[in-house]
Amino acid sequence: MNLVYTIEVERITPMTILKAGLVQMGLKAPITESAERIREIMLDAHARLIARAGAEGVQVLCLQELFTLPYFAFSRDRKWYAGAERVPDGPTTTLMQELARRHAMVIVAPVFEEHMPGVYYNTAAVIDADGTYLGKYRKNHFGHIEWPWFKRGNLGYPVFRTAYAPIGVYICYDRHFPEGWRLLAMNGAELIVNPSATIESLSRHMWELEQPAAALANGCFVGTINRVGSEGPWDADGKAEKGRFYGSSYFANPRGEIIAKAGEDDDELLVCEMDLDTIREVRHAWQFFKNRRFETYGPLSDILSV
Q: Would the pLDDT of 262 be above 80?
């Protein structure tokens, strides 16, 4: 049986039901504001939904990609560098540690990380239910619009052993690459979260295909987030719809079924209870991990290195 643990004062209680949450949110300040001011406003707005998640008993909560800022990758305005911060020593991670401790909640907090001046990552900090900083995931894959801002991740595909369940993180464009999903699941992740910022485009067709397929192929739960509202237009041709995020955050189970879904337009805390015993049941049925032929995949690394 898969065991998940709830922290209590006197004892640790084994559980198989995990209560997880996703927060999707629109930008709460005009993009003409400073990056520091926008971060302050967004942290305040998220703190209110985090408190609500705590009141509802959420054990693992994930926030959206770069949640303290606009999704600025479409822009070439250097003012957004002022929104970058150290992880774990920056203001956002520090606040999330306090909130995690207050609500006994694991929090995944995606931020714009400054490793050093001139070196920046698209990063998610993972904080345990007692406020302990467990580590970070740095986004590994990028689309062409993101290259001017971020360095490719260099921390691999870590799985974080939290108080409630082992979790993995994939960020937005990462989701198009099945290799990372498989590595996270085989390293023990029972829930993989994918915080994203996805606008109306070809990705809309893929949104409800890729993550359920990844959940099924790897026999795990997946929670994926998208923003809502418009943050533009960032694009030169002035088509505002290119800056519209369509929400639709959801959870998928190990059978590839969407089991909880948010709306397209509004801020929302999406909460879902997951029976982690389903992972064992599905893996026993499909045997994907047992039947894989890793010894035949050698040419894959040779092809991909070209």
A: yes
Which residue of the set 139, 220, 268, 272 is catalytic? 139
Whether 192 is in a domain gets the answer yes
Work out how many domains the chain is built from and give that number: 1
The CATH code of the domain that includes 162 is: 3.60.110.10
Distances (CA, A) of 9 to 12, 85, 127, 232, 282: 8, 34, 19, 48, 34
Q: Find all residues with CB under 8 Å of 132, minimum gap 6, and list them.
A: 97
Which is the catalytic residue, given 19, 113, 136, 172? Answer: 172
CA distance 229 to 58: 25
Q: Would the pTM of this model clear 0.70, i.e. be above it?
A: yes
Q: Is 139 a catalytic residue?
A: yes
Q: Is residue 14 part of a domain?
A: no
* Strand duo 12-15 + 4-7: pairing: antiparallel
Q: Which residue has the tokens 């290119």?
A: 242
CA 185/CA 193 separation, integer angstroms: 12
Catalytic residue among 19, 62, 65, 114: 65
Mean pLDDT of the chain: 90
Residue 107 lies in a domain: yes
Sign of CA dihedral 54, 131, 96, 141: negative
pLDDT at 184: 97
* Res. 242 pLDDT band, cuts 50 70 90: low
For residue 46, the model assigns a pLDDT of 98
Catalytic-residue membership of 239: no
Weakest-pLDDT range from 166-175, 228-237, 262-271: 228-237
Residues spanned by the domain of 152: 19-304
| 243 located within any domain | yes
Structure tokens, 108: 């995944």
62 is catalytic: no
